[in-house]
Amino acid sequence: MKYIDEYRNKDIVQYFAGQINIISTKHVRIMEVCGGHTVSIQKFGLPYLLPKTVELISGPGCPVCVTSREYIDRAVAYSRMEDVIITTYGDLIRVPGSTSTLEKEKASGADVRIVYSILDAMLIAKNNGLKKVIFLGIGFETTAPASAAGILKARTAGLKNFYVYSAHKVMPPAMEALIDDGVNIDGYIGPGHVSTITGQSIYMDIPKKYKMGVVISGFEPVDIMQSIHMLVQQIENNEPKVEIQYTRVVKPEGNVVAQQMLDEIFEYRADWWRGLGILKNSGLKIKKEYEMHDSEKMIEVEVEETIEPKGCICGLILRGEKKPKDCGLFGKSCTPADPVGACMVSSEGSCHASYLYNR
Amino acid sequence: MCLSIPARVESINNNIAKCTVGKSSYNTSLELISDQDVKIGDYVLIHTGFAIQKLDTDEANKILKTFEEFKALNEKMDEEEKGQNHPLI
Ligand code: SF4
């Protein structure tokens, strides 16, 4: 495939592995924040190519994994309402809530539909005028602009029975919180598609405040190896900065149209992250002007009490403090077919990726 | 969830582009890149039904070319090493 296969070239991956080996003297811990990177790293076995001095750790960049059980519980409660149709990206349907999942609710008769795009959800709303159609809006800056575009369209078109239940989050507060909490990290592989939207300026505080570098990376093995090389070089030279490796996609200023769309529809609010707790200005809430499409405002429902699963250390894994194999349930009572925690459900979760590629 | 891969624009109709990745084809809204001049034959990144960025193919090709040069240089150095005949190694 054009512009993909080229970036999987083994010789070039090996070339960068060799270069990293030559320059690396200090032991460093590099965190990949994005779940997409976690998957590539495990799938292509990149840790095995790196010298012992370079350790890779996964971070909180899997949207499904950081989403609260309470969110799932509320979605489940909505799905039990007679006049509601739930529309969602496929990732969320199997995530365990306190006592149920959307998949189970669907099996017992709830109208839960997987969509590929918010635009499909809006079509369902248009064709089911007597129902309330709720779209589950999860994801970071990459995904949130699509939700914003949908909400704007729904208002313009007067699509009164269409609602978004937003758990959208933004990445920088989580990246700073990890450092503030004292998690041992020497550099970040920055999320490529979040940065496609935001540009590089959102990370500028990290080298300034924390003397730590961020390299915004693509997702193919060559991209990631080159980004690691760039970070190791920064660390060895003591020159922390924000750099873009993924220049074929990420512009320094980002996608300005998408940023304006986000500004129009959403405002920041404090939000809860698995592993990190409540972080200021880390969540996106639908603004008052658009609240007629905000399910939290418009649709009341009683939600059961949240129960967290026993023995799941997903939170510590999302902080880079533990690895999936440190969990006593990993591969035993927790598998992709029967997951206990969100990190095993999502295709981008660390536990899922480790189970598939690195057991 | 944040993944998205380069897809080629095959046709454009009313701000919706038909794009292909391998053998699959997708209808994609161009709304979020309305300021980028998208033409047939361009590559765009699609995420949940929206194109979020036009791929900078000049930049991509430039980098690929640099990689090729690395490779050529590496091979040349390997060849030279071989020719040097280190008796003690
Ligand atoms: S293996 Fe399962 S139970 Fe253990 S941390 Fe991962 S998701 Fe949680």
Overview features:
heterodimer, A: 359 residues, alpha/beta, Rossmann fold, 5-stranded parallel beta sheet, 4-stranded parallel beta sheet, 16 helices, 11 strands, B: 89 residues, alpha+beta, SH3 type barrels, 5-stranded antiparallel beta sheet, 1 helix, 5 strands, 31% helix, elongated, binds iron/sulfur cluster
Overview of this protein structure:
The complex is a heterodimer of chains A (359) and B (89). With 359 residues, chain A is of the alpha/beta class. Chain A has a domain at 65-170 and 254-298: 3-Layer(aba) Sandwich (Rossmann fold), CATH 3.40.50.11740. In chain A, 38% of the residues lie in helices and 18% in strands. In chain A, helix 7 (144-157) links the parallel strand 5 (132-137) and strand 6 (162-166). The two termini of chain A are 29 Å apart. The model of chain A has no long low-confidence stretch (mean pLDDT 94). Chain B is an alpha+beta fold and 89 residues long. In chain B, strand 1 (6-13) and strand 2 form a beta hairpin. The mean pLDDT of chain B is 83. The chains are: A alpha/beta (359), B alpha+beta (89). The A-B interface holds A 1-4, 6, 9, 11-12, 15, 34-36, 61-64, 89, 91, 116-120, 138-140, 142-143, 145-146, 149, 191-194, 196-197, 219, 222, 247-251, 255-258, 261, 346, 348 and B 1-6, 8, 21-22, 29, 31-35, 43, 45, 47-50, 52-53, 55-57, 59-60, 63-64, 67, 70-71, 74. Bound molecules: iron/sulfur cluster. The site of iron/sulfur cluster (SF4) has 14 residues of chain A, from helix 14 and helix 15.
Main sheet strand line-up of chain B: 3-2-1-4-5
Helix fraction of chain A, binned, reads: 25-40%
The secondary-structure class of chain B comes to: alpha+beta
Classify the helix fraction of chain B into a percent range: 25-40%
Give me the number of helical elements of chain B: 1
Number of domains of chain B: 1
Distance between the termini of chain B: 50 Å
**What would you report as the Rg of chain A, rounded to the nearest angstrom?**
21 Å
Overall form of chain A: globular
Greatest chain-chain interface?
A-B, 51 and 34 residues
**Main sheet attributes: strand count, strand direction, barrel closure of chain B:** 5 strands, antiparallel
